[in-house]
Amino acid sequence: MEFPRELLTHLQAAEKVVVFTGAGASAESGIPTFRDALTGLWENFDPMALATPQAFDENPPFVWGWYEWRRALVANCEPNPAHYAIAEMQNYLSSLVVVTQNVDDLHERAGAKDIVRLHGSMHHPYCRDCHLPYTLGPVTRGGGEEVPPPQCPQCQGLVRPGVVWFGESLPSDAWERALEEAAQCDVLLSVGTSSVVYPAADIPRLAKEQGACLVQVNPDETGLEPFLDFSLQGPAGEILPALVEAAYEPA
Ligand code: OAD
Question: Is 119 among the catalytic positions?
Fold first, then answer.
């Protein structure tokens, strides 16, 4: 695979890199993106309608069952070459921060050390009422059925997924860190995100405004094209390992 010489030079000279990831980074692990059709119990439902506080209030077992299905799916998936290539870049830079919209744990399972989670984590639920964190056991009912959410041991409130839903604010510490890293980085790689869900989608644009070189890895076009310095069209699991090799381990 050939890459523009100027892009490789940017990566070699970079001290700080931010990798901004979305669902497409996990697609080659077998996790459907938000734009893919849902299956089973949820095939006629829009994920945008399930991922809301209102959907959970109206039918908690339905929404909790959807997240248990996703947790089972992730438990049976492995990080893919894109996750490993991102972790490997840590060896060549003084700072590599992964700013992710994903709620799975595949970046950490691949060895990424500094991860900013803009949309929370499916592995860290908490009580809807008193916000006490709740420790999940291994997933046992992820076959696509409705599952009643557990009850909070402290206040008996319902436990909800630890993810950010539509209409909710992003965790302020994660958001502030992401803004800071975007402002300071030399290169921002935007990987596998449609860049249409705000405010997360502001991060690559802000990095560009502050002088970073902006690179996109995606098989399709997104909302980011007008701002890009380099567009690498194709699957992240093929492009990223080749890019890391070309930039940092040339023959
Ligand atoms: P989307 O599902 O919107 O977009 C996935 C992107 O990944 C698309 O641009 C695809 O072209 C791209 N893609 C698919 N396969 C790929 C591959 N193998 N390699 C690289 N790219 C690939 O996912 P996000 O942009 O992450 O929000 O969505 C952002 C947010 O919207 C999510 O975090 C979630 C969602 O609704 C909340 O839950 C709040």
Answer: yes
